[in-house]
Specification:
The protein has eleven helices and ten strands. It has 264 residues and is of the alpha/beta class. Bound molecules: D-glutamic acid (DGL).
Length: 264
């Protein structure tokens, strides 16, 4: 592929969660035009088979390549841990992925116990198993599947009794185990940080990988001479295949943004 610095950065997620990554990328790389794909119609990916996650990741990639993207950011832990190896071997374009930050957490922890909240698809993936096997073996990882959380976020129910109940159920056992770091292994979960803090207080360190992904995107674009040298004058486009209300709410205050609701 003959990439040029003027082409957009493509970003996809199973839904609106990857906008937490988009915000980091947009703030670090304001010169870049971005195209975001929110596959909310098929969310959540976390309970689907590896094969299905792979198929959806391919479909999302093809969509972004048709929009002429110079790099694809897989802003979804579930898609990264299940599909990025295949995507990298199938397309020439560079891919940036996101994985739960258990390595930094394993270095930071004093209690030698870290908690991770992620989807079933991420926690059961080969890549997650490989990454976990590489950290300090004295550090205990307490895994918790965040079942139901993505659905509530996608349907604008962050501040609902159901969300409070699920978070209590998932986090209290970690507190009892004295974890001192909590890794957010799903790009939807940063939107839960205020709620999580209400339960765990300030003593527990919450770690997510959003900023690191933005830095990695910049590094790769720099290495490939693909960073846009001029301020972006084009719209940042968000494609969503379900109701756009939550996305509108999340992007409030951002200018130069166009939300396109359509089937894909
Ligand atoms: N944002 C996705 C992730 O990071 C959510 C997965 C899902 O749709 O279940 O894993």
């Amino acid at each position: 592929m003959n990439s040029s610095e003027k082409q957009p950065i493509g970003i996809f997620d199973s839904g609106i969660g990857g906008t937490s990554i988009w915000k980091e990328i947009h703030s670090l790389l304001p010169n870049e035009q971005t195209i975001y794909l929110s596959d909310s119609f098929n969310a959540p990916y976390g309970q689907k088979s590896r094969q299905k996650i792979l198929e959806l990741s391919v479909k999302n990639t093809e969509f972004l390549l048709k929009q002429n993207c110079k790099i694809i950011v897989v802003a979804c832990n579930t898609a990264t841990t299940n599909a990025i190896k295949y995507l990298r071997s199938s397309y020439d374009v560079p891919f940036i992925g996101i994985e739960p930050a258990i390595k930094p957490a394993s270095i930071l922890t004093k209690s030698k116990k870290i908690g991770i909240l992620a989807t079933k698809g991420t926690l059961n993936s080969e890549l997650f198993e490989k990454t976990s096997s590489k950290i300090d073996q004295e550090v205990q990882i307490i895994e918790q599947i965040g079942e139901g959380l993505v659905e509530l976020i996608e349907s604008n129910q962050i501040n609902s009794p159901k969300m409070d109940e699920l978070l209590q159920r998932y986090l209290q056992p970690m507190l009892k185990e004295h974890v001192d770091c909590l890794v957010l292994g799903c790009t939807h979960y940063p939107y839960l940080i205020p709620k999580i803090k209400e339960i765990v207080g300030e003593s527990l360190k919450i770690i997510d990988s959003g900023e690191a992904v933005a830095r990695q995107t910049k590094n790769i674009l720099q290495q490939l001479n693909l960073l846009s040298p001029h301020p972006n004058s084009k719209e940042n486009v968000f494609y969503i295949n379900k109701d756009k209300t939550v996305l509108l709410h999340i992007l409030k205050g951002h200018t130069n943004v166009n939300i396109v609701q359509k089937q894909f």
